[in-house]
Amino acid sequence: MIYLVLILSFLLDGIIFSLFSFTDPISPLFTMLSLLIIYPYSDTTKKVYYVCPLVLGILYDIAYGNSLFLNTLIFLGYSYLLVKIFKIFTINFINVLIISNLSIVLYRTIICLFMHIIGIM
Questions:
Q1: How big is the CA angle at 73 (ends 71 and 78), to the nearest 5 degrees?
Q2: Is 79 within 8 Å of 35 (Cβ atoms)?
Q3: Which of 46, 51, 57, 113 could join 75 via S-S bond, C-beta 3.0 to 4.6 A?
Q4: What are phi and psi of 33, to 5 degrees?
Q5: Displacement of CA 74 from its chain's centroid (Å)
């Protein structure tokens, strides 16, 4: 089930990115949000949960990002933060909604800052 969600979200990102720009603020990041969705269903040791963002980040960099390991580091950091956040807060609809919105804004900010620093934007 976990891998099906990850594969479908990765393909859905490809479809959305073909319709919108990568930096378009209205295009959601289904791959990043799928990491939030699979967290409650992952292994209790969280070893599988840390391997999934690593592989997903590398594939995301190859397919959509064109940046060397930037999305991999962001996805790993995001999954680490999710583990820490959900140790403090419970997993419910409101918390997931707030964290998903904050994560999209934070991801867009990090990508824009990185592009500005290296001179693409």
A1: 90
A2: yes
A3: 57
A4: -70, -25
A5: 7
The per-residue pLDDT for 22 is 60
Query: Is the predicted pLDDT of residue 27 greater than 80, yes or no?
Result: no
User: What pTM was computed for the model?
Assistant: 0.83
From CA 94, how far away is CA 65, in angstroms rounded? 30
Mean pLDDT of 50-69: 85
The answer to whether 91 and 83 have CB atoms below 8 angstroms apart is: no
Radius of gyration of the chain (CA): 14
Q: What is the pLDDT of residue 49?
A: 82
Report in angstroms the alpha-carbon separations of 106 from 6, 45, 102: 21, 27, 6
User: Which residue type does 47 have?
Assistant: K
Contacts of 59 (CB under 8 A, 6+ apart): 10
What does the DSSP 8-state code read for residue 89?
A: S
Residues 6+ apart with CB under 8 A from 51: none
